[in-house]
Specification:
single chain; about 130 residues; Rossmann fold
Length: about 130
C-alpha cells in the first residue's frame, strides 16, 4: 500500500525538497502553499498524513491543523507540525492543536521520512488494535 502525504509549506523550495524526499521513499505526495489550499487538498487527496508548516501566509498552521482535526471528514488524519520558529512552547502548542508530533526546521530529510513512516506505522497499529 502506498501512503499519501500532503506537504503544506509556504515556501515552494521546502515543498519541493520534502516532496522529493518522500517520493523517493515510496510515498505519494501532494502539496499546498496556504491554509485554504491545504483544507481543499485534504478533502480532494485524502492523505494518510499531513506535514503542516506552522507559518502560512493566510492563516496559522496550528489553527488549520485544529480545524482539520475537528472536522468529521478529516479528524483521523495525523498531522506532523514543522516550523523554523525557535520557541520552546511550540511543540506543546502543536500537540494542543491536534498535531501528533513536531519537527524544528532545519531538519535532515531522512528524519522527515523516518517520522512519516513511524507515524503511519503507529496509526496502522492503532487501527489493528481496535479491530482485535
Amino acid at each position: 500500500m502506498v501512503h499519501k502525504v500532503l506537504v503544506v509549506d509556504d515556501y515552494e523550495s521546502c515543498r519541493d525538497l520534502y516532496s522529493t524526499a518522500l517520493k523517493c521513499n515510496g510515498f505519494e505526495v501532494a502539496t499546498a502553499g496556504t491554509a485554504e489550499e491545504a483544507q481543499s487538498k485534504t478533502l480532494e487527496f485524502c492523505p494518510d498524513l499531513i506535514v503542516m508548516d506552522v507559518n502560512l501566509p493566510d492563516s496559522d498552521g496550528l489553527i488549520t491543523a485544529a480545524k482539520l482535526r475537528s472536522s468529521s471528514d478529516t479528524w483521523r488524519i495525523p498531522i506532523l507540525a514543522i516550523s523554523g520558529m525557535a520557541a520552546e512552547s511550540l511543540e506543546e502548542e502543536a500537540v494542543n492543536h491536534g498535531c501528533i508530533e513536531f519537527l524544528q526546521k532545519p531538519f535532515p530529510l531522512g528524519v522527515l521520512v523516518s517520522k512519516a513512516k513511524a507515524i503511519l506505522e503507529a496509526e496502522k497499529r492503532k487501527i489493528h488494535d481496535k479491530a482485535c
